[in-house]
Specification:
Layout lengths: L7 E10 L2 E9 L6 E8 L3 H14 L3 E8 L1 H9 L7 E4 L4 H7 L15 E5 L2 E5 L14 H5 L6 E4 L5 H16 L5 H5 L9 E4 L4 E5 L10 E4 L2 H9 L5 E5 H6 L3 E4 L2 H4 L6 H4 L2 E5 L11 E2 L4 E5 L7 H13 L1 H8 L8 E3 L13 E3 L2
Parallel strand pairs: 3-4, 3-5, 8-11, 8-12, 10-14, 17-18
Antiparallel strand pairs: 1-2, 5-16, 6-16, 6-17, 7-12, 7-13, 9-10, 14-15
Helix pairs in contact: 1-12, 2-3, 11-12
Amino acid sequence: MKRLHIAFAVLAIALLFSSTYFFVITYVFVDSPKTVLNIHCATSLQYPLASVEADFEAVHPEVDVQIEGHGTIQVIRHVTELGQNNDLLFVADYGLIPVMMYDTKMPDSDESYADYYIRFATNTLVLAYTNTSRYADEINADNWYSILVRSDVTLGLGNPQVASIGYRAITAIQLAEIYYDSPSLFHDLISANLNPPINSISDGETYTITVPEVQNPVGDKLKLRTSEVDLTALLDSGHLDYCLIYLSNAQQYGFNYIKLPDEVNMGSSECESIYQQVEVVYEHQRFATISLDRTGETIYYGVTIPKNAPNAELAEDFIKFLLEGTGKDDFELAHHPVFSSSYTDNLAAVPESLKSLVIQEP
């Protein structure tokens, strides 16, 4: 849609000079409303997507891109359960798109909300901190887990009920317990600081982390928040010593960070079988459309266009802008590179304009 200008010609003044009429014509220009492209995204993507938004609008001045960030579960739920008609969904866990959208029908329809995803980027977990964090001058890649259990150290995690960073963080703590052979690590950091507790039970080969319906922190040791934005704000203000967040966010906001081993950080596809030793299950099914149970796996981001998107073609343009245009450079500058070729689970369902940019998964 291009901006329209409607010119209304109004005869304003007629003056008689030497029997000649001069007409002054006044034009009033009225701008038509811009097309709004509604995007909901995981909060960990708000930083790079803000740059993509600005650059996309510069190329498409007739478009107003509006981006709203939430935990990944909530991003999808806004469409499937709350009835919002969004044009694009960007999520931090691509696997929730099929879980929450493929078998969920649109109102008064036999069609599901989506039938494909595009897996376009990865990430890794790190332990972020600042120069004022307790033991900042002592912590390193070898002792970080033992620093965290000290009684005067505070730790921030995402809430596993609403955000991918939440269930990934508690999975990483269990993976660290295994990797460092520190049998009480999960209990000391997680279970002992919540009432009712989030417990991790082993059957000798795998671990099942059980998340109760509510999470009430006991004391000040552990703080749960709904998003990376909330965690980074607490860390930056000195209300947290450390938090588990994505590498891209730690770099974007200029935090110090500890790189975790590949066996722990959930960012290495070569360690997939290790991540799968841990499953997060939920005592209460909070959302009507899904069971939230998640098995550990490599971190991958996904995007899809809901079938009821009001501006599907424009949404395709935005994805293309991100996968091969200026938006890809924006993500690179924001420390969150996009795959050179992205992946999909259903190439036949991907819009024609995007098919050349994705590869069918094996």
